[in-house]
């Protein structure tokens, strides 16, 4: 049970840091709303709802990137990661804690963005929302690993989108498909498959990424 | 250099000669011996170079991921270079797949690019993914952290291949239905022979280039070590 | 363009790209050779410091 306790403590630490500093979440919220407004002008008159669903997914992925780019910054600025790696807990717990904290931010951003999307553009049904939730899991699982890799590099803000976007293509396909296809269930299955496979892979490989060099 | 590596280097000229011979035979078979396709005419012969290159790309990425897995598993730093060189080969052959694929698309469908072709879209995704691999590598300091992170990213690549393929197949029905396919009439025996010989030739060529580049890289790191020892 | 020209283009691109690759490898080989020569000179100078540098490169 100590694994669960470690993860809970790490997640709590991130949430508490965010509550105190308010660095990430307000930026994500403002960004996603501003993007939706920009999209209103980017979509020509008479474009169907389908195009709006596609743009919603662009907004979600980029908002997530904004949050992920900040994810490991506090650890890096204060050298906390070295301490965490040396701590007597399983290293994958660090990844899981970070993923859960990022997931909390992303869900909070979507709690604002999805109603705003419905208000401004087009309705969302249950399948579309389920698709968004499943895609969030994948984004946070893969994204926090990629962010940890990028954080060690010289150009970390530049590197993360390059590493993450090709991996996010199946998530966008799944999310958009769940929103607009009459057979949304198949896309939910794709998202669930993606989440399962990449969560296990990220969980297993995180300890190699934080090896001290 | 260990004795197995030395013997592999000695066998390299033999493999290179074999690759050259097979490549000549493959060109002869696919351009002159194989019968003309009734449907597509002469441009169907692009098949004999495009498809073997595409399969070789998968082979290189697979090899790179396998070496990455060995690195993480056994912790032997020698696999880092092998994984990197295999992925480098894969990226070059991936670029060739995209170019020959575009030429074939233009010849048979009249457009340079079509999102209808799952294979082309998949290759574009993979090409972007592995370009990011090089960005990651060049941005990290040389050392254990770089080799481990690159290995993890390379492993993500091979897992991404089937999932992307599935996603692209699913995406077809909301983007637009497939109108073109490359499923022509059944291949005749000679056509199939020409294809297999071409495949073997391109795979051997890739393997020879892989060994040459790897030897060069090893030589470079040996020389650096020698310089440090001398100074 | 005719089908034959496209066919020639596909094979030609492959050929040229492989040649470019060989050229890059050759450039690297030249650099390796230069580095080896430098190291060799270093070793020789260490073994016989009284020799003039010009004679060493000829040797």
Brief sketch in words of this structure:
With 231 residues, chain B is mainly α. Chain B is 81% helix and 0% strand. The longest helix of chain B is centred in the C-terminal third of the chain and has 42 residues, at 189-230.
Structural overview:
The complex is a heterotrimer of chains A (213), B (231) and C (59). By secondary structure, chain A is mainly α. Chain A contains nine helices and no strands. In chain A, helix 1 (2-21) packs across helix 6 (91-120), helix 3 packs antiparallel against helix 6 and helix 7 (126-151) packs antiparallel against helix 8 (156-180). Chain A is globular, with a radius of gyration of 17 Å. The two termini of chain A are 31 Å apart. With 231 residues, chain B is mainly alpha-helical. The mean pLDDT of chain B is 86. Helix content of chain B is 81%, strand content 0%. Chain C is mainly alpha-helical and 59 residues long. Chain C has helices at residues 3-47, 53-58. The radius of gyration of chain C is 22 Å and the shape is rod-shaped. The chains are: A mainly alpha (213), B mainly alpha (231), C mainly alpha (59). The interface between A and B is large, with 38 and 34 residues.
Can you lay out the helices and strands and say which pair or pack?
The complex is a heterotrimer of chains A (213), B (231) and C (59).
Chain A (H helix, E strand, L loop, with lengths): L1 H20 L3 H18 L6 H23 L1 H5 L2 H7 L4 H30 L5 H26 L4 H25 L3 H26 L4
Helix pairs in contact in A: 1-6, 2-3, 2-6, 3-6, 3-7, 3-8, 6-7, 6-9, 7-8, 7-9, 8-9
Chain B lengths: L2 H31 L13 H28 L3 H32 L8 H22 L4 H32 L13 H42 L1
Chain C lengths: L2 H45 L5 H6 L1
- Strand % of chain A is under 5%
Overall pLDDT of chain B: 86
Coarse morphology of chain A: globular
Gyration radius of chain B (Cα, Å) is 20 Å
Instruction: Determine the N-to-C terminus distance of chain B.
Output: 21 Å
**Proportion of residues in β-strands of chain B:** under 5%
**Distance between the first and last residues' Cα of chain A:** 31 Å
Mean pLDDT of chain A: 88
Tell me roughly what share of residues is in helical segments of chain B.
over 70%
Order of helices and strands of chain B: HHHHHH
The assigned structural class of chain B equals mainly alpha
Kindly report the greatest chain-chain contact and the residue count on each side. A-B, 38 and 34 residues
Order of helices and strands of chain A: HHHHHHHHH
Helix content of chain A: over 70%
Radius of gyration of chain A: 17 Å
Low-confidence stretches of chain B: none
Which segments of chain A are poorly predicted (pLDDT under 50) over 5 or more consecutive residues?
none
Instruction: Based on Cα principal axes, name the global outline of chain B.
Output: globular
Assembly state of the chains shown? heterotrimer
The major pleated sheet of chain A works out as:
none
């Amino acid at each position: 049970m100590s694994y669960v306790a470690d993860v809970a403590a790490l997640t709590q630490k991130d949430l508490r840091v965010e509550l105190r500093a308010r660095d990430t979440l307000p930026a994500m919220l403002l960004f996603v709303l501003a993007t939706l407004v920009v999209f209103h002008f980017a979509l020509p008159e008479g474009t169907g709802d389908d195009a709006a669903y596609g743009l919603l997914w662009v907004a979600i992925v980029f908002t997530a990137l904004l949050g992920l780019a900040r994810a490991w910054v506090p650890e890096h600025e204060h050298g906390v990661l070295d301490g965490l790696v040396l701590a007597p807990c399983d290293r994958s717990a660090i990844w899981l804690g970070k993923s859960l904290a990022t997931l909390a931010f992303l869900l909070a951003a979507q709690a604002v963005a999805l109603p705003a999307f419905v208000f401004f553009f087009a309705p969302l049904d249950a399948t579309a929302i389920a698709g968004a939730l499943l895609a969030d899991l994948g984004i946070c699982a893969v994204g926090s690993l990629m962010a940890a890799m990028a954080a060690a590099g010289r150009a970390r803000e530049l590197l993360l989108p390059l590493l993450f976007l090709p991996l996010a293509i199946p998530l966008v396909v799944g999310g958009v498909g769940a929103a607009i296809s009459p057979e949304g269930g198949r896309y939910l299955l794709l998202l669930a498959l993606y989440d399962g496979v990449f969560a296990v892979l990220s969980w297993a490989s995180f300890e190699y990424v934080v090896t001290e060099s | 250099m260990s004795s197995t590596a030395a013997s592999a280097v000695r066998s390299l000229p033999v493999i290179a000669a074999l690759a050259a011979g097979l490549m000549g035979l493959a060109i002869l078979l696919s351009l002159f011996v194989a019968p003309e396709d009734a449907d597509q005419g002469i441009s169907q012969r692009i098949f004999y170079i495009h498809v073997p290159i595409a399969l070789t790309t998968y082979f290189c990425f697979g090899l790179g991921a396998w070496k990455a897995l060995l690195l993480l598993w056994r912790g032997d730093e020698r696999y880092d270079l092998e994984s990197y060189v295999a992925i480098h080969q894969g990226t070059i052959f991936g670029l060739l797949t995209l170019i020959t694929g575009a030429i074939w698309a233009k010849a048979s469908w009249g457009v340079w690019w079509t999102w209808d072709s799952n294979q082309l879209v998949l290759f574009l995704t993979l090409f972007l993914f592995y370009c990011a691999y090089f960005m990651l590598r060049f941005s990290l300091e040389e050392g254990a952290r770089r080799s481990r992170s690159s290995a993890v990213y390379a492993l993500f690549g091979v897992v991404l291949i089937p999932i992307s393929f599935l996603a692209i197949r699913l995406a077809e029905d909301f983007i637009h239905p497939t109108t073109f396919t490359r499923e022509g009439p059944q291949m005749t025996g000679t056509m199939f022979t020409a294809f297999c010989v071409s495949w073997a030739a391109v795979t051997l060529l890739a393997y020879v280039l892989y060994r040459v580049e790897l030897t060069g890289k090893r030589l470079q790191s040996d020389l650096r070590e020698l310089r440090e020892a001398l100074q | 363009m005719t089908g034959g020209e496209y066919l020639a283009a596909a094979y030609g691109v492959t050929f040229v790209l492989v040649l470019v690759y060989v050229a890059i490898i050759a450039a690297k080989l030249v650099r390796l050779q230069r580095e080896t020569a430098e190291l060799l000179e270093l070793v020789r100078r260490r073994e016989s410091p009284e020799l003039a540098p010009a004679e060493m490169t000829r040797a």
